């Protein structure tokens, strides 16, 4: 390596013809016949010669090339390969440039299998997509801090408290996902942001529910024979959630038992097993009336494809001038049980598909109280026809 440095000057570099020109210290300017030029540094490290490109000329000036060359020679003096060091630095920079939007989508994809319906409803991702990513999506995840998060969620922290809380929790999952990928992130950023945001003023608002004495008149008014009305009737009769009702299939029904698959139950797929629902005679009548509408095995298909949406039933009640919503009928049923029926707590809760007791207790208690729930649902059906002469059932005794 020549010890004479700074042989070239800008004027000579610009005027040079195609060829190789030394600036000293291993720094060369290669000028090509096509008019292009490239800086190349030759160094010897670990017993072999290495050629390191320093960029095109004149985009990389003579002054900048000399600075970069000196930095590389300093690494050689430390026994380091400047080419490998540069590659390592580029990998770290690329790794730390992952944007939050990309990390969030990757985190969502990796968790789809754990989510109900593979997350197709969008409820897991939507708090991020609507309230976080528009502001922070293009921020490298390594640069994300508590102030960024605080400023993003502050506008909804009190007015949309539940959504803001979900967004913060999802963001925490994204940061843990980024850390698992090897990215340098602040895992405490969401906790710090929560401290900056303070306690929420919001109080949880329960879904409006029709008082249980008023449910019979509404149920009996569902006499139009439409898919929406039949779905609402079955929802009320079974006290089930909207999702399994809307996705009910003929192959899930065996006699007077409807078996809801595990993935259709609320929560994670691995959080519960399939659930048996006893069908009252009235529920079987509703299913029979819905058969002509069935398509592709679904009892309540939509007009175009798939099944009716949750909004379909909600809008139906809204057009009736009601503030109550379909999910509220579960509360109506539970209040009716509490105020009029002498049944064990476990039976009443199981009728709603709720899990009761601790893990050890559940491990020893294998029953789902099917016979007792069958009698309970028949009594519920009788209540729904209070004052009506449409049906007549035998008396059932709760065990």
Overall 3D form: elongated
Order of helices and strands: HEEEEHHHHHHHHHHHEEEHHHHHH
Low-confidence stretches: 267-271, 389-399
Strand order of the largest sheet: 1-2-3-4
CATH architecture designation of the largest domain: Orthogonal Bundle
CATH topology title of the largest domain: hpI Integrase, Chain A
Q: How many beta strands in the DSSP annotation? A: 7
Helix-strand category? alpha+beta
Strand content: 5-15%
Q: Overall pLDDT, averaged?
A: 86
- Radius of gyration over C-alpha positions, nearest whole angstrom: 34 Å
- If helices are DSSP runs of H or I spanning 4 or more residues, what is the number of helices? 18
Helix proportion range: 40-55%
Q: Alpha-carbon distance between the termini? A: 97 Å
GO molecular function, one term: DNA binding
Family: Belongs to the 'phage' integrase family.
Keywords: DNA integration, DNA recombination, DNA-binding
Protein name: Integrase arm-type DNA-binding domain-containing protein
């Amino acid at each position: 390596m020549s010890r004479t440095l700074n042989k070239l000057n800008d004027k000579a570099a610009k005027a040079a013809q195609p060829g190789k020109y030394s600036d000293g210290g291993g720094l060369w300017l290669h000028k090509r016949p096509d008019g292009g030029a490239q800086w190349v540094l030759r160094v010897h490290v670990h017993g072999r010669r290495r050629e390191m490109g320093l960029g095109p000329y004149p985009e990389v000036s003579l002054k900048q090339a000399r600075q970069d060359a000196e930095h590389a020679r300093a690494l050689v003096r430390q026994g380091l390969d400047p080419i490998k060091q540069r590659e390592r630095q580029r990998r770290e920079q690329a790794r730390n440039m992952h944007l939050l939007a990309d990390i969030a989508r990757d985190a969502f994809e990796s968790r789809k299998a754990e989510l109900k319906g593979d997350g197709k409803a969008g409820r897991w991702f939507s708090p991020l997509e609507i309230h976080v990513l528009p502001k922070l999506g293009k921020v490298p995840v390594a640069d994300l801090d508590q102030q960024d998060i605080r400023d993003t969620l502050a506008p909804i922290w009190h007015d949309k408290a539940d959504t803001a809380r979900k967004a913060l929790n999802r963001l925490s999952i994204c940061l843990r996902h980024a850390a698992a990928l090897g990215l340098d992130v602040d895992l405490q950023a969401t906790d710090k942001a929560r401290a900056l945001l303070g306690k929420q003023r919001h109080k949880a608002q329960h879904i409006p529910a029709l008082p249980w004495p008023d449910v019979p008149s509404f149920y009996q008014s569902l006499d139009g024979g439409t898919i929406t009305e039949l779905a609402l009737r079955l929802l009320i009769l079974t006290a089930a959630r909207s999702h399994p009702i809307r996705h009910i299939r003929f192959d899930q029904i065996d006699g007077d038992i409807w078996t809801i698959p595990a993935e259709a139950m609320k929560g994670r797929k691995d959080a519960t097993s399939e659930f048996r629902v006893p069908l009252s005679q009235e529920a079987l009548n509703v299913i029979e009336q819905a058969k002509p509408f069935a398509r592709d095995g679904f009892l309540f298909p939509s007009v175009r494809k798939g099944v009716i949406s949750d909004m379909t039933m909600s809008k139906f009640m809204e057009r009736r001038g009601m503030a109550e919503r379909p999910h509220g009928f579960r509360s109506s049923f539970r209040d009716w049980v509490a105020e009029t029926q002498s049944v064990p707590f476990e039976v009443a809760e199981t009728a709603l598909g709720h899990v009761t007791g601790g893990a050890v207790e559940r491990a020893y208690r294998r029953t789902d109280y099917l016979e007792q729930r069958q009698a309970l649902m028949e009594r519920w059906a009788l209540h729904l026809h209070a004052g009506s002469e449409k049906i007549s059932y035998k008396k059932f005794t709760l065990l």
